[in-house]
Design goal:
Strand order of the largest sheet: 1-2-3-4
Radius of gyration: 19 Å
Number of domains: 1
Order of helices and strands: EEEEEE
InterPro entries: Ig-like_fold
Mean pLDDT: 74
Strand content: 35-45%
Low-confidence stretches: 1-6
Oligomer: single chain
């Protein structure tokens, strides 16, 4: 990811970091996001051969990359 005036990155494990660059200097920040948890776990289903299966689950953060 890139932001105006700096470079930012976030890993899948919730660690994020960024470097701000301006005409007067640099600043480095790091943050840790809380882990995403299942609020509705996956359930077992039975599917016959050559048929499609659909799984549904919910996670604690609506915008979480999964």
């Amino acid at each position: 990811m890139g932001g105006a005036g700096g470079d930012n990155a976030q890993d899948d494990d919730g660690h994020g970091s960024g470097v701000s660059k301006s005409g007067t200097g640099k600043d480095r920040r790091a943050s840790r996001l809380p882990p995403v948890t299942f609020t509705k776990p996956l359930s077992n289903i039975t599917v016959h051969e050559s048929k499609n299966a659909a799984f549904e689950c919910n996670v604690s953060e609506a915008e979480a990359p999964v």
